[in-house]
């Protein structure tokens, strides 16, 4: 339905007010088409707020979006800073374990919004959390507020992390 709607909306070219349309609609507009109305950074900021689950997790379209986002943001290796993590939004859910490890705690806030994780992502999240080298600190110093912030990641925590969290 969204793909069909994009066809109707863009029949006479890309509208100048494309940012005012639902973010999910932008999943079916290519970054090059969007470039006529804004920057690739703005496009991926909008995409990061969209419901990516509209696209199948392993779909070529979703993989291509991530690759184009990394290129747009000029992320050369596997380290993503906080600013770029904010822009990527839900796209971080598709980053592999090597990105999660290299980025330290920079991705945790966005990762906590993901519906599910692959095994290498789970392992990387546990590794980053266990290190204590995040803005949240080590699990022994966490509060209810911290757990609320990391809520979506709690199912990934193993016994060694859970036992360190104060009651």
Structure in words:
This protein has 167 residues and is mainly α. The chain has one domain (1-163). Helices cover 45% and strands 0% of the residues. The longest helix is centred in the middle third of the chain and has 13 residues, at 60-72. It is elongated and about 60 Å long. The termini are far apart. The mean pLDDT is 86.
Q: Report the end-to-end length measured between terminal Cα atoms.
A: 47 Å
Fraction of residues in helix:
40-55%
Number of domains: 1
Helical run tally = 10
Strand content: under 5%
- Gyration radius (Cα, Å) is 18 Å
Principal-axis shape equals elongated
Order of helices and strands: HHHHHHHHHH
How many strand units? 0
Question: Segments where pLDDT lies below 50 for 5+ residues?
Answer: none
Main sheet record: none
Structural class determined from secondary elements: mainly alpha
Oligomerization category of the chains in this entry: single chain
Mean pLDDT across residues: 86
In short:
It is found in: Membrane. Helices cover 45% and strands 0% of the residues. By secondary structure, the protein is mainly α.
Topology, element by element:
Elements: H1 2-9, H2 31-34, H3 40-49, H4 60-72, H5 82-88, H6 97-102, H7 108-111, H8 119-131, H9 144-149, H10 159-162
Q: Key features?
A:
167 residues, mainly alpha, 10 helices, glycoprotein, Stereocilin-rel, membrane, signal
């Amino acid at each position: 339905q969204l793909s069909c709607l994009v066809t109707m909306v863009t029949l006479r070219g890309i509208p100048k007010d494309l940012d005012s349309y639902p973010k999910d609609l932008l999943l079916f507009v290519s970054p090059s088409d969007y470039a006529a109305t804004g920057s690739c950074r703005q496009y991926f900021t909008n995409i990061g707020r969209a419901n990516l689950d509209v696209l199948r997790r392993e779909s070529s379209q979703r993989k291509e979006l991530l690759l184009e986002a990394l290129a747009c943001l000029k992320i050369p290796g596997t380290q993503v800073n906080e600013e770029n993590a904010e822009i990527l939004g839900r796209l971080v859910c598709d980053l592999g374990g090597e990105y999660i490890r290299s980025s330290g705690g920079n991705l945790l806030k966005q990762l906590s919004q993901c519906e599910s994780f692959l095994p290498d992502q789970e392992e990387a999240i546990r590794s980053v959390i266990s290190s204590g080298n995040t803005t949240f600190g080590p699990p022994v110093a966490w509060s209810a507020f911290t757990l609320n912030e990391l809520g979506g990641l709690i199912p990934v925590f193993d016994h060694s992390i859970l036992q360190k969290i104060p009651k």
